[in-house]
Amino acid sequence: MFRIPNRWEIISRLTCSLTFLLRRILNIKLTLVGDAGRLEGGGTVIISNHLSYVDGIVLGSIFPAVFVTKREVKKWPVVGLWTTVCGTIFVNRQRKDLVMSLVTEMSRKLNAGANILLFPEGHATNGERMLPFQTATLAAPLRNRSIIVPVTLVYKSIDDKAISQTNRDLIYCYDDMDFAPHFWKLLALRSVECMVTVQPKVECFRYENNSAGRKRLAADCYDRVLGRRVSAELSKEENGLEGIRIRV
User: Fold this and answer.
1) 144 found inside a domain
2) Does the pLDDT value for residue 248 go beyond 60?
3) Using CA atoms, how far apart are residues 7 and 157, in angstroms rounded to an integer?
4) Is 9 exposed, middle or buried (0-12, 13-18, 19+ CB in 10 A)?
5) Which domain holds residue 19?
6) What is the CATH number of the domain that holds 150?
7) What is the pLDDT of residue 131?
8) Separation CA 29–CA 18 (nearest Å)
9) With 0-12 CB in 10 A as exposed, 13-18 as middle and 19+ as buried, what is 234?
10) b/e code 50-67 from CB counts within 10 Å (16+ = b)
11) 2 part of a folded domain
């Protein structure tokens, strides 16, 4: 069977370009704090807090990456076909016996030069608190000794009104909320503003490739997405990145 070298890297870059176009059509305005350019080498895992499928549109427009998402997305109108074509890795949350095959697929795509976008909470939330990070999928970056880039996503306003409990569900999509009616309401919005902060990277070679190592890695990533400083010292390079702020 004919295979294009680095095909997942190529597909993820094409997906990023098309997702950027979708974000502009939806008029989702983005402020990026930090340096997203550190992913140019490929084989990196981007992790983020999770509030909505809109997160994928926002982050997918910045980072060329293959998505990891729940299997149910396959059944969503249009989006299901789109994510399948883009090489998305689907998670069957009811079949824990398939975890190793999931990790193997993630590892294979990392080895092929693709970045992976992962929401380790496992579920979208209403933003009031961040769920503990699941450790199973972190076995892939540990196995590959990958770099993990934690990012923090915050939605700031909807139609020039600050995000609050009264309007947040126009963006946030969690629990049993249906995709189709939610997306229809999203299309009716005039504008959305959000901010993505690229946090200091995590080097997986510093952690043991076992259950204890995954737990320590999950805790470190959790703290970084929250913006906590878990290291006593950050490199000058990382400190310098905090001042980079651009609109994209």
Assistant:
1) yes
2) yes
3) 37
4) buried
5) 7-247
6) 3.40.1130
7) 95
8) 16
9) middle
10) bbbbbbbbbbbbbbbbbb
11) no
C-alpha distance across the termini of the chain, in Å? 39
**Six-digit token string for 106:** 């993630």
Residue 178 class from Cβ within 10 Å (0-12 exposed, 13-18 middle, 19+ buried)?
Answer: exposed
Backbone φ and ψ for 132, nearest 5 degrees, come out as -55, 145
Whether residue 228 is predicted with pLDDT greater than 80 in this model: the reply is: no
Domain count, the chain: 1
Burial of 160 (0-12, 13-18, 19+ CB in 10 A): exposed
Give pLDDT tens digits for 70-100.
777 777 776 767 777 777 887 776 676 667 8
Say which residue the tokens 């309007």 belong to. Answer: 167
0.70 exceeded by pTM: yes
d(CA 174, CA 98): 24
The answer to whether the beta carbons of residues 143 and 107 sit under 8 Å apart is yes
Alpha-carbon gap, residue 91 to 239, rounded angstroms: 35
Residue showing tokens 């999931």: 102
